[in-house]
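We emphasize that the prediction below concerns an isolated chain of 485 residues; any contacts that depend on oligomerization or on bound cofactors are therefore not represented. The input was used exactly as deposited, without trimming of termini.
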Amino acid sequence: MALQKTLYVGPFIHCKTLTTLDVCTSAVIGVGEDGKIAFVERDVDELQSPARQGWEDAKVVRIDGSGWFFPGFIDTHIHASQYPNAGVFGKSTLLDWLNTYTFPLESSFTDLKKASRIYKRIVSRTLSHGTTTACYYATIHVPATNLLADICHNKGQRAFVGRVCMDSHLSPDFYRDETPAVSRDNAKACIDHVRSIDPTFDLVSPIITPRFAPSCSAEALDLLGELHNETGVPVQTHLCENHPEIALVKELFPGSKHYTDVYDNAGLLSSKTILAHCVHLSSEERDLIKIRNAKISHCPASNAALTSGCAPVKEMLREDMTIGLGTDVSGGYTPSILAECREALFTSRHLCISNEGGGVVNGKTKKSDEIKLSVEEALFMATRGGAKVVGLENRIGGFEVGMDWDAQLIQLDDVSDGEDETLVNGDVNGGEEATFAEDVGLVDVFGHESWDDRVNKWVYGGDDRNTKAVWVKGRLVHKRQGASV
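Result of the prediction step, given as a token string:
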């Protein structure tokens, strides 16, 4: 359906820098028929703005109450096929979790009816949580991977969709590529399919996806590196998630200096490479990642759930490494990037708690402020940082003129006009109040809060009930019941 010029009226918030938010309490943002931001007018009379811009016939979306527009979230690492297992990991760690829970589920995606049911739900679910861009791992199956790309395209989510490549003898017999050439050829088949539905990769892009080094032979990695260099298609994989994995890589690739060097030797480490986890990088590995300008996806929920460790993200940010957030479903238990912001904040505090509050990172004692992330830094990784990770920093992650309107409408429950006497008096009116409370979410504002307070309350207490509407490139892709958009 063709888009129409639209005026978005009300407060907006986005990240100005890594450590500062830009809060505009009264704005008019004009989004053209191409889904791009045509103008931003700050602190203006909304009645005069349409005439001044020649947009008198434009549609108007106005925020009522205690809400604001915020850039869409970018999930830089998520396994779409694993969504049914979200929250199911027991006491396992990475390598046994893969064999116990993950490979049996992924291998079942020969069933396209099952794949369709799961993929439709995870795309809808992530959109409902404000995720406008997602980097998806699918499975080894070409038809199911292509189906995921089709679903993302049809639902309007910006996505990078990767067919998982894994040919190593360490992978189970029932779930692996027969040869290195099959890994390459099937990856290319998925690239060709995405090109057929989105020739310029404007909304959906393919992404070359060697699962991780232990799942791939050296020959397969080399062939995928050649494919990356030939096509320019980005790469996603895992790196230094836990200590047994790192030891296994050292055993499997004795000719490499370290884990990161395995990917570099194969031609898979470049400015278009997304490296998930990076919990236990050596200083030499960090230096190599910076030289290659590769990017990092921080997945704190998964890192905690699988007992992998706490990545020293604050330190890596200070080194100017490019970092976004990833839910890593289903190592991570939730498809919510907002929840991942919380996990990132708490992970940094857990690092700080060690050694009497000073924290120890890479054997060196650090002051707490050098370890703890701020809300602003977490939101930056969720938006502008993620945009840079996926190579779209000039198109998404903020509200500058010329950028795509990838946005979410955030609404908190405003009770500043007085207490809810019905709830205070204990009269639930047949359950209506209980239903209302469920619809508006957990965050209440009482009128005295600053804008920083509101953002903090949202980050620490918010969920998808506060995400009233979501747009990708100007297209409304999610709307909660009752939202006025």
